[in-house]
Each structure stands twice: as structure tokens, then as C-alpha cells.
């Protein structure tokens, strides 16, 4: 009997109201199964007196009740609704919450700036393998900045300006004059000056960006550069790229921006102020690069809700790989664990030939565990499906280059086929990467052959190398005849790749 759980996370933001429905499967894996977004622009609707009029609250009620029905359709076990800057900073905040709760029967949590920063940080740290740096979360009505070391928060602050209320303050039309842009930069610098820890942090740290502003920047860059991996998460940008986007977009009218490929129409008027905040923070903190995080506040709320005892994962890459593997129950688990053990043994045994480091070993680890997930789509050509799934499933803890590289290793069947796939990703991979994928892919392929019957006959494997061959000494629980035949079929290609052949010596332990 299935024990799947679903959680509905509602984020009442200053620019939009979002719903994300997460599913935790009976194998303890999780994924997003539905999401919805409606524009709110709450920061725009708050009057000069700081009050959100009651007539504006009804549209929020309608959206929340719509989201509530979606959650009911999914049979969510828990709905958690949070409100951020617009409602937090409104003078009639308590009246707004009472009104929403009365007409939706939902409990609304109003997050403090510190809580918003903490939850955004949690969602980010569970999705990026970064030890120290800054996190900036630019919302519609606030900007949170967090400094972290060893994956722990050192300091954080929330400023009461974001992309929506800054646009409202400096431009009714969304088009900024040069002096308006300079005033926005001065506003941000003055706020940053009030927090000495921001200026005194070490230079050269990464600036991890959350929120719609930096996601929009990432999408624009992906379209402009024809990036072969359609993934914004963990994309890295330099400061000059954001400066170029500001120059290009500020020169356009709002109507012209709405026609820009990759830019959402409902963000056309607020994108430039958001990018100005982002660039000013980047320059002030003397960071080395931007890193885009596709996970943030809502993900942090999910982790805290679903795993309250230990919401933060210990190893981002390992957690992500195991989660992805568990989402594909058609994969024979005992088999891929055996392939993983054998592939890593082969990598270690050939160390004197390849001289590769621990990071390269991790590529073999990832590829050998995931090489079979394509069978979820179809057994036939499953390696092609594996490549697609790995390249499009977001393996946290790997760069874009590393994701494609691991997918190539996992899907390797022949040098020509691997090279053909590599040609489609030359913006991310070098010729040396292609050669590396072929060599490491051949190790996963050989490890797969050593469990061709999927019955794990090999209990222990020792490796040695002479001038002519990789010698495998196999201690087996039962006859590995199927495996030995498969190894024999691979030996010719292995010799072409590694320059040595393969010899096997098996010992079958008596079961009597």
C-alpha cells in the first residue's frame, strides 16, 4: 500500500502568489508534482499611508481559495501558507491576515525578514554544493542578504526594498532615467553601509541569487547564448553580464521589453530596478561571480515541513543522486549498487594509467548509479533516455558541464555514439571532456558487464595491471559465466580505449 505524502506550499509574495505541491513517495524520494502562479503586485497596492485597502484583499482570497482547491485535488496532507514583505510591512498587517484567514480557512504565517532569509538559505544549501559566500534574495518588496561559512549562517539582514516597490518609488511607467538608476544604486549602498559585516567579509566569494529577478536574468542569458542545457539552476554569471543586461533592457521601453525573448511580460516593468539592486550588491560585496539558485524560500519551507528533525542535507550531490534514483522504481536497485561498487573498483585499479582525481571518481559514482534510469521510459534505447533524464532532471551538486559529462558517461555504449552526443554540447564540453567521458564510460560499461545476469555473482574483485592487460581476480558466490561472456564481447573496445586488454580469473566459493 502506498504511503505517499503531499505538501502544498503557498508563498504570498510581494510580486506574485505561488503554490508548489511537493510529493514524498513511498521510497522517501520527493519531487514537485504541480505548481501555479498568479500576479499579485501587493507592494504596488499598498497606499502611501502603508495600508492595503480591504477591496484589494479579495483578489488574494480568490487566489488562495483557488490554490486550496488544487491542494484538495492532490489530496495534500498539509498546506502551509506564508506571507512575506508586502504583508509583513503593511501597517494593517494583522487585519490583512485576519481577513485572509476568515475567508480561506487557511492559517497564514507572516515571516519575519530573518525567517525569510533563513528558509531561503535552507532551500539554497540543499541544492548547491557551496561552502561559503553570500545569498541575496530579491523579492517584490524586500531584499534579504545572508553571509554564510561552512554552510552555516553567519549574519543576515532584510531590507525593505525589492523589485516592485522600488519600481513604484522611482518610476510609475517602469522606464528609468539615468538619474533614477543612480538614485536606486545610492539607496541600496546606503542600506548596505548600515551593516558593517557586509563590507568586511572577504572579497571573492560567490553571490548566490534567489528570486524572480536573477532567474529572469538567467533565462535571458540562456536564450541569448543558446545554452545547450536548458537549466538556470547553478548557472554562473559574471558581473559584466548583468551590467550588459541592465544597459540593454534600460534602453528599451516597457512595451519593447515585453517582446524580449526569455523575459516574462509581467516582469517587464520591474526587471531593471531588480537588476540594479542585484548589481549594486555584487559590486559592494566584491563577489567573484553570480550563482543562480533555482531553489529558495518555498523549498526551504518544504524541507522544514517534511523533515523537521533534519531539514538540511549533509551531502548535496549524494542526496540528489539518491533522490533521483528513488524516483525511478523500475531500476533494479541491487544491480546498480553492484555496478557502482565494481565501477569504482575499476577506477581505483586503473589509477596508475589515468591519474585522475577524486572529483573524477565522483563522476563514475554518479553515472554508475544512474545509468539505468532510462528504463523508466523504455528498455529499448534506454541509454538515450538515461542521457535525457540526467540532463533534464537537475542533479544538484554538479555544474552544468559536470551534469552533461556524467550523462555522457552513464549513457556510453560506443565511442562514435558518445562523440555524436558530445557534438551537441560543445558549448559546455571540450574535446578532453569527450575523451574523459569515453574512458570513464567504458568503466561503467565494463562494470555493467560484470553483473550482466543482475544476480551479483561477484562478491569481491581485485585488480592489477601488467603491460598487456587489466587483470581481474573475481571471488564469486556462483558461476559468473554470463558475465565473463559479456566481458569478452567488450574486450576489443576496451583495448582501443585504454591500450590494454582484460583477463579474468574467477574463484567460485563452494556452497556445500
From TrEMBL:
Belongs to the GppA/Ppx family. CDD domains: ASKHA_NBD_HpPPX-GppA-like. This is Ppx/GppA family phosphatase. One of its GO terms (molecular function) is hydrolase activity. Keywords: Hydrolase. InterPro entries: ATPase_NBD (IPR043129), GppA/Ppx_hydrolase (IPR050273), Ppx_GppA_C (IPR048950), Ppx_GppA_N (IPR003695), PyroPPase_GppA_Ppx (IPR030673). Residues 320-474 form the Ppx/GppA phosphatase C-terminal domain. It comes from the Bacteria. Residues 20-305 form the Ppx/GppA phosphatase N-terminal domain. Transmembrane segments: none annotated. GO terms for biological process: regulation of transcription by RNA polymerase II.
Amino acid at each position: 500500500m502506498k504511503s505517499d505524502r503531499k505538501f502544498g506550499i503557498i508563498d504570498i509574495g510581494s510580486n506574485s502568489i505561488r503554490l508548489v505541491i511537493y510529493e514524498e513517495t513511498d521510497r522517501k524520494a520527493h519531487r514537485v508534482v504541480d505548481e501555479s502562479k498568479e500576479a499579485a503586485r501587493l507592494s504596488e497596492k499598498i497606499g502611501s499611508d502603508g495600508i492595503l485597502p480591504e477591496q484589494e484583499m479579495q483578489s488574494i482570497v480568490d487566489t488562495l481559495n483557488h490554490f486550496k482547491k488544487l491542494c484538495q485535488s492532490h489530496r495534500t496532507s498539509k498546506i502551509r501558507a506564508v506571507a512575506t514583505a508586502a504583508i509583513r510591512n503593511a501597517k494593517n498587517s494583522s487585519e490583512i491576515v485576519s481577513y485572509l484567514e476568515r475567508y480561506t480557512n487557511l492559517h497564514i504565517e507572516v515571516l519575519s525578514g530573518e525567517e525569510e532569509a533563513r528558509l531561503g538559505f535552507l532551500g539554497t544549501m540543499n541544492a548547491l554544493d557551496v561552502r561559503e559566500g553570500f545569498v541575496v534574495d530579491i523579492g517584490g518588496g524586500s531584499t534579504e542578504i545572508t553571509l554564510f561559512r561552512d554552510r552555516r549562517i553567519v549574519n543576515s539582514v532584510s531590507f525593505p526594498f525589492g523589485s516592485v516597490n522600488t519600481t513604484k518609488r522611482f518610476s510609475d511607467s517602469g522606464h528609468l532615467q539615468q538619474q533614477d538608476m543612480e538614485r536606486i544604486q545610492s539607496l541600496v549602498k546606503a542600506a548596505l553601509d548600515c551593516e558593517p559585516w557586509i563590507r568586511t567579509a572577504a572579497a571573492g566569494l560567490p553571490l548566490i541569487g534567489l528570486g524572480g529577478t536573477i532567474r529572469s536574468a538567467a533565462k535571458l542569458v540562456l536564450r541569448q547564448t543558446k545554452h545547450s542545457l536548458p537549466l538556470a539552476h547553478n548557472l554562473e554569471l559574471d558581473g559584466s553580464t548583468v551590467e550588459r543586461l541592465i544597459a540593454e533592457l534600460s534602453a528599451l521601453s516597457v512595451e519593447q521589453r515585453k517582446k524580449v525573448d526569455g523575459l516574462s511580460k509581467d516582469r517587464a516593468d520591474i526587471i531593471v530596478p531588480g537588476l540594479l539592486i542585484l548589481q549594486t550588491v555584487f559590486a559592494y560585496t566584491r563577489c567573484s561571480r553570480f550563482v543562480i539558485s533555482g531553489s529558495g524560500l518555498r523549498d526551504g519551507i518544504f524541507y522544514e515541513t517534511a523533515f523537521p528533525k533534519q531539514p538540511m542535507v549533509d551531502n548535496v550531490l549524494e542526496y540528489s543522486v539518491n533522490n533521483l534514483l528513488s524516483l525511478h522504481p523500475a531500476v533494479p536497485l541491487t544491480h546498480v549498487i553492484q555496478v557502482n561498487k565494481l565501477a569504482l573498483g575499476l577506477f581505483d585499479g586503473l589509477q596508475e594509467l589515468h591519474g585522475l582525481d577524486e572529483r573524477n571518481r565522483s563522476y563514475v559514482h554518479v553515472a554508475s548509479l544512474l545509468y539505468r534510469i532510462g528504463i523508466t521510459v523504455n528498455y529499448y534505447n534506454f541509454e538515450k533516455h538515461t542521457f535525457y533524464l540526467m540532463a533534464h532532471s537537475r542533479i544538484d551538486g554538479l555544474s552544468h558541464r559536470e551534469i552533461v559529462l556524467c550523462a555522457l558517461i552513464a549513457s556510453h555504449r560506443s565511442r562514435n555514439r558518445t562523440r555524436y552526443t558530445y557534438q551537441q554540447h560543445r558549448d559546455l564540453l571540450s574535446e578532453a571532456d569527450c575523451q574523459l567521458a569515453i574512458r570513464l564510460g567504458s568503466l561503467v560499461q565494463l562494470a555493467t558487464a560484470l553483473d550482466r545476469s543482475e544476480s551479483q555473482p561477484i562478491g569481491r574483485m581485485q585488480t592489477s595491471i601488467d603491460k598487456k592487460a587489466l587483470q581481474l581476480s573475481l571471488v564469486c558466490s556462483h558461476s559468473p559465466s554470463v558475465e565473463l561472456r559479456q566481458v569478452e564481447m567488450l574486450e576489443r573496445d576496451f583495448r582501443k580505449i585504454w591500450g590494454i586488454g582484460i583477463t579474468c580469473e574467477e574463484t567460485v566459493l563452494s556452497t556445500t
